[in-house]
Structure formats: structure tokens, C-alpha cells
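Notebook, bench 3.
Goal today: get a predicted structure for GTPB6 protein from Onychorhynchus coronatus so we can plan the truncation constructs. The sequence was checked against the plasmid map this morning, with no discrepancies at the termini. Length recorded as 141 residues. Pasting the sequence as submitted so the record is complete.
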Amino acid sequence: DLIIHVRDITHPETMLQKATVLSVLKNLNLPSRLLDSIVEVHNKVDLIERYKPTEENALAISALHGHGLEELKQEIEKKILTATGKKILTINVNLEGPQLSWLYKEATVQEVEVMPEDGTARVKVIISSSAFGRYKNLFPN
């Protein structure tokens, strides 16, 4: 669904390495949507003072120090959701009914926050549009 190209931005041949990787990927006859959505990651930015990527859409990180990793995670999540046609939703469910069990079977449940005072839960899920449509039909409230 997604290609992430992590480069050592301090390497003297980093641009040649990028060109080589892109050439190999193109020779693999991958779908153009996959090649067009590559996430370009520049690693080791902690070794270059005040580093700013000059390449469009490149993310600057330092894996060693954790700099930029949250932004990378968000970008990956966004691209994966777009590529797979899924979305992240928070759904309120009645714990006395079958909704939570259904969500565990048909979606990816990420978090469940139980509200014991009213017997409900807030459920954060990754779900396809079609599965969410089925959910709304089965559980209209």
C-alpha cells in the first residue's frame, strides 16, 4: 500500500542513492499510484545543523533522537488510509448489544473507553466505508 524511502541524508552520495532506488522501483513495474505516493524520509538530521529538506514533501527525522517520528507516523497513517479507502472513527456503542463484538470482527479496534455510568463505550476504529455502511444499517442508533 505504501513505499517509505528512508535515506541517510548525511551520506555524500545521498542523491545518487535516491536516483538508484527510484530507478529500481520503476523497473519493478509498480503501479504509478504507489510510485507517486512514496514517503521520502531524510534520516540523521541531527548531524546537520538546522537541516531543512530541499525536496518537496520530504520528512526530516532523527531516528536516534526521535525527532520527527510523530510527523512520520501521522503521514504514514494518512497515506495508508487513503490507499486502502479506510477511515478512523470514534463510535459510541451500547455495551449490552452486539455492536462492540461486530466492530472487533469487521474493523480494527484501536481503543475502547468504557463509560460504566451509562453502559456505553467510545470505540476508536479503522474501518472501510462499506463496513461502516453495514454497521449503520445494522445499528441505526
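The helical segments are 14-27, 32-36, 69-84, 99-106, 129-138. The radius of gyration is 21 Å.
Flagging this for group meeting.
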